[in-house]
Specification:
The complex is a heterodimer of chains A (153) and B (177).
Chain A lengths: L1 H10 L1 H4 L11 H13 L16 H15 L4 H12 L14 H28 L2 H21 L1
Chain B lengths: L1 H22 L19 E3 L2 E6 L9 E6 L4 H15 L4 E7 L3 H11 L5 E5 L3 H5 L7 E5 L5 E6 L4 H17 L3
Chain lengths: 153, 177
């Protein structure tokens, strides 16, 4: 039993593992800002990682920059502006909504609408192909024709 | 008829998008610095650390700002091209020795030749950060007013010099200071 508890406790260690280089800021607000900023800035060398996740030297430099700016009391917006001035919108994992990124933001909704339109169109086509009244009318006509033919003979 | 044409059309649209996606180069990030003034710095010169250089010192000249390091493999590939460009004396080449050991950098210049009029040191990468450097080597073309006119990411090859750099330099040299 003791061994099991020990094993389970050891399994918790990765959960407690800190970011690559954890930094402590004086206030919880600043710490929160640091954590959220490093999680939403892209590392430009290893492009699918945030600077919080990346081991690249550039990511370390960017983390240091974020830390220093927060320490000086700068706002999150000022830091994001600083980064986009140097690296462009690409550095942001949450790109701003503007003309250039419009398609990126509206794309999913656009595809949903297109998909719904396609679905309605297909349903309408199918319905038109076999509408019940039309089928009924055809059947009646056939019956009448057969009856007429029967009378004639 | 539509039944047969529609899948074909959809396939063509998809193929076009995939082809565009395949040909994009995500490692080449457009620089927001284009057509903006050079980020300010005052960095020590590699070969005379007590002296500093800032972009203001280069006003009135067309210059290349080449980010390099002795640890950078592609810089070795680009180096002979820069040496040759320096020999043509068409443009001033300033080097930014990025996150490098000064002794290693000096050895590099001694053994491979020095195309730079001046190299400055950026050991902690702060100047590089201000310039949006993310992958060494990078080369900026600066005009006489100190405005960034072009940025090249990755090694400059002989073909790039002929096709892009020399025409642009000639154009910028002709501009009024």
């Amino acid at each position: 039993m003791k061994q099991l508890i020990l094993i389970l406790t050891l399994l918790l260690v990765p959960v407690l593992a800190q970011a690559i280089d954890s930094r402590q800021l004086p206030t919880p607000e600043q710490q929160g800002a640091y954590d959220s900023l490093t999680a939403e800035l892209r590392c430009l060398v290893c492009q699918n990682q945030t600077i919080a996740d990346s081991n690249a030297e550039l990511a370390a430099d960017l983390r240091r920059q974020v830390y220093e700016m927060l320490e000086k009391g700068q706002s999150k917006e000022a830091i994001l502006q600083f980064m986009t001035d140097r690296y462009g919108d690409f550095v942001l994992y949450k790109p701003p909504f503007k003309a250039k990124t419009g398609l990126l933001w509206l794309g999913p909704a656009l595809f949903l609408v297109l998909g719904l339109l396609a679905v309605f169109w297909v349903i309408k086509q199918k319905k038109a192909a076999q509408s019940p009244e039309q089928g009924q009318a055809e059947k009646l006509a056939k019956i009448r024709r057969l009856l007429d033919e029967g009378d004639a003979s | 008829m539509l039944k047969y044409v529609l899948p074909l059309v959809l396939f063509i649209i998809m193929a076009v998008f995939l082809a565009i996606g395949l040909n994009l180069k995500p490692s080449e990030i457009p620089s927001p610095l284009l057509n903006k003034p050079a980020p300010v710095f005052a960095a020590p010169k590699l070969q005379a650390p007590q002296e500093k250089l800032s972009p203001a010192d280069l006003k009135g000249q067309v210059w290349l700002f080449n980010v390099w390091a002795s640890w950078c493999v592609s810089c070795r590939e680009e180096h002979p091209v820069l040496n040759q460009l320096a020999q043509q004396k068409a443009v001033v080449i300033i080097g930014l020795n990025y996150k490098d050991d000064p002794a290693a950098a000096q050895t590099w210049l001694d053994t491979l030749g020095n195309p730079y009029t001046i190299s400055i040191m950026d050991q902690d990468g702060r100047v590089g950060l201000d310039w949006g450097v993310y992958g060494v080597p990078e080369t900026f073309v600066m005009d006489k007013k100190g405005i960034v006119r072009y940025k090249h990411t990755g090694p400059v090859m002989a073909d790039d010099v002929q096709r892009i750099f020399l025409p642009l330099i000639a154009q910028l040299q002709a501009e009024a200071p």
